[in-house]
Amino acid sequence: MLDPEKFIQEAVEEIRRQVGDRTAIIALSGGVDSSVAAVLAHRALGEHLVAVFVDHGFMRKGEPEEVRRIFGEELGMNLRVVDAGERFLEALRGVTDPEEKRRIIGRVFIEVFEEVAAEVRATHLVQGTIAPDWIESGGGIKSHHNVAGLPSGMVLELVEPLRDLYKDEVRVVARALGLPESISERMPFPGPGLAVRIIGEVTPEKLEVVREANAIVEEEIRRAGLKPWQAFAVLLDTKTVGVKGDIREYGHTVAVRVVESLDAMTATAMEVPWEVLRRIAKRLTREIEGVTRVLYDITDKPPATIEFE
User: Fold this and answer.
1) pLDDT tens digits for range 248-267
2) Where are the alpha helices (DSSP H) in 155-305?
3) Are 193 and 55 in contact, with CB atoms under 8 Å apart?
């Protein structure tokens, strides 16, 4: 069993040993993995850590504001916010293949980091890579921007303090570090964000639909007192006929996914109470323009992955 205090002490010492008095940057998204890695690195390096929040435009509703508040204001990290939404959207224009989307997002993500790293003269890149990331990538299931392979010209040395941990262990460390519950208990979120919760090409219109849909699903799951591993919405690349008022509408189809898991290596579709699913479906179709149909995914992992892409 993981001893969080011992892990924290050893991780801080190892980061300090690896980086020394040089400068490191970290990919801070606000998820539990990057948050724990950032706090560990901040304890080890202080102002020698530059926490970089790349707002690629694919975050959940309210996340950019929360990252600024918690890490910049409350924790006092050396935080830099890069608004790169248009850059990512342009790079993804016309792309529909999920692996190609992940590769492009990973490439642009690294490009942005290289630019910031050059400005601050960083020598190290801290990442919140955990065990399932590199296990799944190595097995050919999917690529992660954390482990998709760095460009040959990359001059930053990687620091991965969480590489051997699973998500439940990362949460234990987060609690021991005193991170707020909104971070320590936050549901997992893919590195490429909402871009991989849109099947097909990513557009500003689709992003708004899936962002609102995810917010509704998470809110209703919390309101019901349920505590799944992950709960989210996916915008499918299929339009279906619906009726709103007396008007037939050819609109979006949203899939809802709620799963239980321990470490994300396997997952079981959660038996969400029918009244909760009905409430979610009603809100999605009433509150989001253009949504006419809601589906619930009951597939376990395996054979399906947790995310659709």
Assistant:
1) 888 999 999 999 998 788 99
2) 167-176, 181-184, 204-223, 274-287
3) no
